[in-house]
Structure formats: C-alpha cells, structure tokens
Amino acid sequence: MAIAQKMAQFMGKSSWIRKMFEEGARLKALYGADKVYDFSLGNPNVYPPDIVHEELVRVAQESDGASHGYMPNAGYPWVREKIAEFLNREHNLVDSTGQIQGLPLSADHIIMTCGAAGGLNVVLKALLDPEDEIIVPSPYFVEYGFYADNHGGVMKAVPTKPDFTLDIEAIEAAISPKTKAVLINSPNNPTGQVYDMKTLLELGELLNQKSDRYGRRIYLISDEPYRRIVFDNTEIPSILKVYSHSFIVTSYSKDLCLPGERIGFIAVNPKMENVREVIDALILANRILGFVNAPALMQRLVARLQGVSVDPMVYQRKRDRLFGVLSDIGYECVKPKGAFYLFPKTPIPDDVDFVRLLQEERILAVPGTGFGCPGHMRIAYCVDDATIEGSLEGFARAFKRVK
C-alpha cells in the first residue's frame, strides 16, 4: 500500500461534511447552482464587516519588507497584548475602570495560531502522552477524534442530555486514570446549544475532584469560534472563571467571516498550575507541528479589530425562518441558542438514508452519524435566503415520503 494503513482507514470514515460538499458540487454541475440547496458546510455566506477590508488595506499599505518576516512563535507581542486586554474586558477580569477583578491575562498567556483547528492541535500536542483520553460530549465536531489521534491520544465520546446540554453524570462515569482533558464546544457545532454557568461550574468542580483522586491534573479545553454568534440575549459564561486549569481556543473564522485566512489564538488561564511550563510547551508545539507562527498579516489585522463582529441577527433571522418551517412540517429540533446550525431528528432512524432521500430533492445536509449522534442531521443555515426558501418544499416532500 502506498499510503499509511491508518490514513487509509481514516479516509474510509472521513468527514461527512466534505462528502456532502463534494456531492453538492456534482449536483450543481448537473442542475445548476440555483437548483441545489446546499446546507453541508459551515462556510459563512455573510461578508466580513466593512471595517475588516478597510483595515486590511491600511495594514497592507503600512507594511514594509520586515513585515513579512518571522516573529516569536507565539506571535507578535503587541498583538497578543491587544487580545489579552480585550479578553480581560470580555470575561470581566477587569472592570470598566480598569480595576482588576481576578488574575488578568497578559500577552504571555496568548499564543497566536493558524485558526482554532491549529490551536486545538497545539494544545493536544502539548498535553498528551500516548493513550491519554480526551472526553468529548456528543454530538461533537467531526475532526476532534483525528486531532486526538494526531498526538497519540484517544477521544472518548459521552452522551449529552436530550436537549444537548452537558450530562455531568455521564462525564463523571467516563473519567478514568487516563483522562487528560475534557473538550467542550459552546456554542456547539452541530447543535447550536450553549452550556450555562451552573452546569460549567459543576463540571469544574468535578474535574477538581477527579484530579485530586487520580493525582494528575485534568484540563478543560473550550473550543469557542462561535462565541459571538448567539441569539435571544443568551450569555456565554467565561470558562476562565469556571476552572483554573482551562484553555480557550478560538478563531476569527466565524465572527469576522475569515475562515480561509486561518487566524486564531489560544488563551491560557493565568491561574493554571505550572502555567509557564504549559505556555512554553504550547509555543514549542506551535513550531514543531509546522505552523511556526500564525500569518503575520492577519495578526496585524485582527489586532485592530478586537470586539468587531458580524451582526448575529443576520443568522438569528435565518434560524427563525428555517426552524419555524421545519417545526411546522413535523421535524423535531432543539432550538439553537448560537452558531448557525440546526440539528433536527431525522423522521426515520437511519439518518444516512434520510439524507440520501433529501439529495433526491437536491438538498444537502450532513448525517448526524458523522457527529457521533445517529438519527439526526446537521443543516448549516449560513447560506443565502434563496437557498433556504428554495429548499422548504423539498424538506416537506421528503418528510411526507416517510410519514
């Protein structure tokens, strides 16, 4: 065999998202793009805010030859300082007058990364020994298992409650002497669920108890690229206040609509034990994984855009339209509190078969099987309104065919 056996196995069960995206390309070639309703990929259709392009032009004009050279592997210190200052305000670690409310972040606690995916790989590289376990609530982002495997770890999925909130008892039952971290994603992809402060505090207390019991630290990793896309005045708790041994990993892919630019960061909780050693390991991992450093131009850009985001009401309006019609048809779905996905139950148990039925209506959704949650499907509604409106009759016809 020309390629590694493990890669051959991975390719056999590779991302359903990409499979459906490729199927969409085939159908569009046959019927025309306007006759195919593609909800497969979480690729924002909303353009970046105007200020993003304005500042990008300014950054490019101000650049000189030195602007494209290497910098510290953690990123430009002044960029990291800007981000730390913003996070201190966003997470209420300092108040509006600048008074310290907790142990604040500094530039030293920020590592610039090639997106959230790069950041997660950096964190796992820094933490994992062979066979260490990462607990992930299900449903989960499809790549998490591959990321854990990249660094010798094992992903251990645990169920959530019927409304996709965290099941603390299930997490407790899954923790073992091999557990190194719990990885959460809120707002969640694929469900749009947001975990509340009460539940997260219970999780933090559990991790402290289990860390003491097993004599080794269990970390909490919060994957937060959708943090600023929330609806109905939902609040996103600060993971930094929940648990001292925590990491935030995020990107600007969703809130600034820059997924192709691969820019994000890791924030390390300043209260973490051995925090300097952990930060040094993250910086080394950033380099030896081949990222070296996050893109220089994008670092300079995002430093100017702290607090800037797309208007979440754009997505809330799409959510309300699609959720309302699908509910009226008869689909069962938990109403998302954030992100830009619906995760309804499929009207037959076999989600893969139902998604194939939707393809006959030229609708592309992703089976919940790919997210570790069979019997559901993910619908990414970060699409133009014409795609939503054009799909509605097809969703109704598919439902009626099996009911």
Account of the protein in words:
It contains 14 helices and 12 strands. With 403 residues, the chain is an alpha/beta fold. Helix 5 (115-127) crosses helix 10. It is 42% helix and 13% strand. Strand 6 (219-223), helix 9 (239-242) and strand 7 (246-251) form a beta-alpha-beta unit. The chain has 2 domains: 5-48 and 311-402, Aspartate Aminotransferase, domain 1, CATH 3.90.1150.10; 50-303, Type I PLP-dependent aspartate aminotransferase-like (Major domain) (Aspartate Aminotransferase, domain 2, 3-Layer(aba) Sandwich), CATH 3.40.640.10. The mean pLDDT is 94. It has a 7-stranded mixed beta sheet with strand order 2-8-7-6-5-3-4, with helices on both faces. A 3-stranded antiparallel beta sheet has the order 9-12-11. It has a two-stranded parallel sheet with strand order 1-10.
Helix and strand layout, with pairings?
Blueprint: H1 5-12, H2 16-31, E1 37-38, H3 50-62, H4 77-90, E2 110-113, H5 115-127, E3 133-138, H6 144-150, E4 154-159, H7 168-174, E5 179-185, H8 197-214, E6 219-223, H9 239-242, E7 246-251, E8 264-268, H10 275-288, H11 296-303, H12 312-329, E9 341-342, H13 351-360, E10 363-364, E11 366-367, E12 377-380, H14 385-402
Parallel strand pairs: 1-10, 3-4, 3-5, 5-6, 6-7
Antiparallel strand pairs: 2-8, 7-8, 9-12, 11-12
Helix pairs in contact: 3-11, 4-11, 5-10, 12-14
Question: What is the CATH H-level superfamily of the largest domain?
Answer: Type I PLP-dependent aspartate aminotransferase-like (Major domain)
Work out the radius of gyration: 21 Å
- Please bin the fraction of helical residues: 40-55%
Tell me the major beta sheet: 7 strands, mixed
Order of SSEs, N→C?
A: HHEHHEHEHEHEHEHEEHHHEHEEEH
Q: How many strand units?
A: 12
Beta-sheet strand percentage? 5-15%
Global shape = globular
The structural domain count equals: 2
Which CATH architecture of the largest domain? 3-Layer(aba) Sandwich
CATH class of the largest domain: Alpha Beta
Q: Major sheet: order of its strands?
A: 2-8-7-6-5-3-4
Uncertain stretches of 5 or more adjacent residues: none
Report how far the terminal alpha carbons are from each other: 46 Å
Query: What average pLDDT do the residues reach?
Result: 94
Individual helix count: 14
CATH fold naming of the largest domain: Aspartate Aminotransferase, domain 2
What class do helices, strands and sheet pairing give? alpha/beta
